[in-house]
Structures are given as C-alpha cells and as structure tokens.
Specification:
145 residues, three-stranded antiparallel beta sheet, single chain, mainly beta, 13% helix
Length: 145
C-alpha cells in the first residue's frame, strides 16, 4: 500500500486521521461498503432513477483492490492534500461544503482504479467515502460486523 509512514502510523480503530479528515485504513482483509446516499450534480448524466439504482450496492475494498459487482480493479492508494475550494471548484464545479467538507484543506485518496468513479475516493469527515460517477456524488458507508 502506498501511503506515507506518518499517515500509516495514525491508523487507529480502522480509520486514518490526517489533517482532521478520517478515512478507513485499507487492510489486507476486505471491508464491505454500501452506497447509502447520493447527490445529483448540476450536470449529472444519470437520472434520479439511475442514481437510486445504486442505493444499497455493495463495494468491497482492501489494500490492493476494489470490487463493484462483477468488476474488479487493482489499486495503489496514495493520499494527496489539496486546497479544498480550488480542487472541488476545478474538478467538480461545486463548493466543498456541498459534500460536508468544511476544512480549507482536504485529502483525496487516489486509487488508480479503472472502474468509473472510483479514482479518486473522497474521504468525508464522518468516516464515509464519496465517489463521483457520471455527475453524481455517491456516498459509501462501511459495514461493521
């Protein structure tokens, strides 16, 4: 897993805390996530019904792969600190507050995954992850046993 020693050493109770942003540690054991929400972007190419079809969809992740349905990609996660206002305005034409990001800096988790929407993953401060596909932000919540 490509992640800085500083970030790796801060892995506590399944979450990495970096610049006041938490995201789950991707470990050798796969963790299950569910799509639990979405926000249609201003230029979404998916309809509300198509976005709704993603609700409850399972995503499996570990330190080397992401699996969505029948699709699997190999990943090499690497965090990038960005200026939140600039990044979200440039990449998505939104304000970070629209995703609940209130800090000036944000950490984006680049995965190099070739499944549409899963590079990058956007850690949200509440432990969820977001991904952006066809103009829609989808929210992933980790399933805990």
């Amino acid at each position: 897993m490509v992640i800085s020693a500083k970030v790796q050493s801060l892995c506590i109770a399944g979450a990495v805390f970096f610049l006041s942003v938490a995201w789950p540690c991707l470990t050798a054991a796969a963790s299950q996530w569910l799509v639990t929400g979405y926000t249609l972007g201003k230029s979404a190419s998916l309809s509300k019904a198509e976005a709704e079809a993603w609700m409850g969809k399972a995503v499996l992740m570990d330190e080397t792969s992401i699996i969505v349905g029948e699709k699997k990609c190999q990943i090499s996660p690497s965090p990038q600190e960005v200026d939140a206002m600039d990044y979200f305005a440039t990449q998505f034409h939104i304000k970070p507050a629209e995703l609940g990001i209130r800090e000036r800096k944000a950490v984006i988790l680049h995965t190099q995954c070739d499944i549409p929407g899963f590079d990058p993953l956007i850690p949200l401060g509440d432990g969820r992850l977001a991904f952006f596909r066809d103009g829609v932000f989808f929210y992933l919540t980790q399933v805990h046993d």
